[in-house]
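haha ok so turns out i had the wrong file open the whole time. this is the CORRECT one, sorry everyone. sequence first:
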Amino acid sequence: MTGKNSTLIFSIALNGYQIRYRRHLESQRRYAEKMGYEYIVVEKPWVTNLGAECCWLKLYLLRAALTAGYHYVLFVDADAYIQNGCPELISLVKPDKFLFMANGYSGKLNSGVMLMKSCSESIAWLDQIINAIHEPVSDIDTVGWGENGHVIHFAKGCDGLEVINEKWNNTRSEQCEDYIRHFNYGPMKSSFLDIIFHRIVFKFSKLMLRCNLNKKSEVAEKLKKVQERIPILFNRVISEYKVFS
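then structure:
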């Protein structure tokens, strides 16, 4: 692949996110079309037996896309809105870096927006995390659920990491003149509808995984189930979305 078509942007919108964040997903599509990038949103299967923990899928799909011929791949969470004035991704690129991420409102890296460059180092970094899914990370790194804690942990000391401006993943303030506004589990997710929606998602996740997503004593059990189920979901997704193979 050559030119801008060698850049892929993708999002994952399962378990009701397809409906709740339609406007955000459309903003991502508009940006990709404007810049000449390829764009795909994973919306199938509609429901998964991982609930909210299906977010681990992004790591598998990032790896798949980077080995499928794309030079750069941007993952954007379904609840992230790309503003009309967002610059080209090339403005972030540095020749000696392969991972570009911003800190979230917590001061730690937020994996809701991840730009990666295709190279042996980026694949090796993703493999590290994927191979360690079943291993809980330290309390300093964990964020309670999902893959973000593992991303934080394995980004420490990573020479290929470039910490980018928070304008590229604003989880802090609606007053920020941002490029990507991310309505994640923080100050930005304050609407009544979002609160109710995510309570339902977390209750559903607890039923599917038969454990509490945030309970420390159940983390190891939860991660074991994630490690078992994510490859099955991944294989189902890549059979449906050929862009990753």
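Residues 219-240 form the longest helix (22 residues).
again sry for the mixup
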